[in-house]
Every structure is written in C-alpha cells, then in structure tokens.
Design goal:
By secondary structure, the chain is mostly helical. It has a domain at about 25-70. About 80% of the residues lie in helices and about 0% in strands. The protein contains five helices and no strands. The chain has helices at about 5-10, 10-15, 20-50, 55, 60-70. The longest helix is centred in the middle third of the chain and has 33 residues, at about 20-50. The chain is rod-shaped. About 0% of the residues are buried.
C-alpha cells in the first residue's frame, strides 16, 4: 500500500489516467458554463443590435462620412 502511493505520484504514466481526468474535469465544467451563458446573452443582443444600426447607419454614414472626409 505504501509503495503504491509514492510510485503513483512519482511516475506520470501511472497517475496520468487519474490526474488528467481530475484536472480536465474542472476546466471543462467551467468552460461549458461560460459558453452557454455567452451564447444565451449573444443571441438576444445580436437580434436587437442589427435592427437598430441598420436604419441609423445608412443615413449618417454616407452623409457624415463623405462630408467629413472631403472637408
């Protein structure tokens, strides 16, 4: 029992299957939590953003852009 513990800690090959699994679990859980939150917040904003800028951008962009650049 005592030899198994130190041996498993020293060689990465023996603890590889257990260590990577535990280390990969926390990062994976954190990433998925952020992804869904971002995805849910992005769709609503993306829908409202394209609608508002469309009517506002075409009018001031051509006039202000050309006038400002020429002057």
């Amino acid at each position: 029992m005592v030899e198994t513990m130190p041996v498993a800690d020293e060689p990465p090959a023996a603890s590889a299957p257990a260590a990577p699994t535990e280390e990969a679990m926390p990062p994976e859980k954190s990433r998925p939590k952020q992804e869904p939150a971002a995805k849910a917040a992005v769709p609503p904003r993306a829908k409202a953003a394209p609608e508002a800028p469309k009517p506002v951008e075409p009018e001031p962009d051509p006039h202000a852009g050309h006038d400002m650049d020429k002057k």
